[in-house]
């Protein structure tokens, strides 16, 4: 497949770097201020070196990448709330051109799912978005493979929050101390709000709800509580009872909920560090646990490229 990648952060750069190993060709790459476009194929190393050295991927306008001769648009710009722009407009333009779209950006399918499906229905292109839930973990493809059997989903879907809670529980440290440690290690952003308030996990659960119920849930439909106000004493008390606290997202009975929950220390949901885990409740196969790395450039890029491999050739 010929790929145009919009977004040159950790995920987009990793897609460009790894695409050749999957026998795909990069014909365009755009960052927020520039683009490199070559219908005969870009040299991945040269483009990424230029980005590292100058902060720009090329001399073209970012909009030129959307008009390149590609089969699949990989949308890897940062997730935005509300109108999900500019990711939604990028997706719409690709579908209007009858091209496929693979999303790493959660916004379009977390905030405008119904519109995405409507645009897809009018296009010869398809939209896939495995990378939006759980990074490298094949959550959405597993749900698709189970063909309607999945009745509910829950799990730990934010590595930053899980790292903080794991450290608080293991070392008896306070939230602010562990947050500063996570920021020093690069596990938490300088502004960790998106992670610690539960927004990131909620967006992923909203996407799961849209897939499970074929509906148009958005962030406003989720009941969300974060971990910033969780006292260290709560984890100490939990430990005395053989339990711990994790930020759990759940999609069940038509509702989306995210918040700190008590979990037995021996439960599969008590994964530590930045690990993610998703439990799927099924009609005939019982409970399935899928765990792994829920973030990271190469990890998330592997999910993007797996989606590209699932797409049919364009007619």
Description of the structure:
With 315 residues, the protein is of the alpha/beta class. The protein folds into two domains: 148 residues, Rossmann fold, CATH 3.40.50.720; 153 residues, Dihydrodipicolinate Reductase, domain 2, CATH 3.30.360.10. It contains 13 helices and twelve strands. Strands 3-2-1-4-5-6 form a six-stranded mixed beta sheet, sandwiched between helices. α1 crosses α13 and α8 packs across α9. The two termini are 13 Å apart. The model has no long low-confidence stretch (mean pLDDT 95).
Write the topology of this structure.
Layout: E1 2-6, H1 10-18, E2 25-30, E3 35-37, H2 44-54, H3 62-66, E4 72-75, H4 87-96, E5 100-103, H5 107-111, H6 113-121, E6 127-128, H7 139-145, E7 150-156, H8 159-171, H9 175-185, H10 193-196, H11 199-213, E8 222-224, H12 232-240, E9 243-252, E10 255-264, E11 275-282, E12 287-293, H13 297-310
Parallel strand pairs: 1-2, 1-4, 4-5, 5-6, 8-10
Antiparallel strand pairs: 2-3, 7-9, 7-11, 9-10, 11-12
Helix pairs in contact: 1-13, 8-9
Order of adjacent strands in the largest pleated sheet: 3-2-1-4-5-6
How many distinct domains?
2
What fraction, in percent, of the residue positions are helical?
A: 25-40%
Order of helices and strands: EHEEHHEHEHHEHEHHHHEHEEEEH
């Amino acid at each position: 497949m010929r790929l145009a990648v919009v977004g040159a952060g950790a995920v987009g750069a990793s897609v460009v770097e790894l695409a050749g190993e999957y026998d795909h060709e990069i014909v365009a790459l755009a960052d927020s201020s520039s683009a490199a476009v070559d219908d005969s194929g870009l040299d991945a190393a040269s483009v990424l070196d230029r980005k590292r050295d100058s902060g720009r991927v090329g001399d073209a306008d970012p909009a030129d990448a959307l008009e390149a001769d590609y089969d699949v648009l990989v949308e890897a710009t940062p997730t935005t709330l509300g109108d999900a722009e500019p990711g939604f407009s990028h997706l719409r333009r690709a579908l209007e051109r009858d091209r496929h779209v693979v999303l790493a950006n959660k916004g379009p399918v977390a905030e405008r799912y119904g519109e995405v499906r409507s645009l897809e229905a009018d296009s010869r292109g398809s939209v896939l978005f495995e990378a939006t839930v759980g990074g490298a973990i094949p959550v959405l493809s597993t749900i698709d493979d189970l063909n309607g059997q999945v009745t509910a989903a829950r799990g730990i879907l934010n590595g930053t929050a899980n790292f903080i809670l794991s450290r608080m529980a293991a070392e008896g440290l306070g939230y602010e101390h562990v947050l500063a440690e996570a920021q020093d290690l690069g596990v938490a952003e300088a502004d960790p709000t998106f992670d610690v308030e539960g927004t990131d996990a909620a967006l992923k659960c909203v996407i799961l709800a849209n897939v499970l119920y074929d509906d148009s849930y958005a962030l406003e439909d989720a009941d969300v509580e974060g971990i910033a106000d969780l006292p260290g004493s709560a984890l100490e008390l939990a430990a005395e009872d053989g339990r711990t606290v994790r930020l759990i997202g759940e999609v069940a009975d038509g509702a989306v909920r995210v918040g700190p929950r008590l979990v037995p220390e021996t439960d599969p949901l008590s994964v530590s560090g930045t690990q993610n885990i998703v439990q799927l409740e099924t009609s005939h196969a019982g409970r399935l646990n899928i765990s792994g790395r829920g973030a990271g450039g190469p990890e998330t890029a592997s999910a993007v490229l797996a989606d590209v491999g699932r797409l049919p050739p364009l007619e």
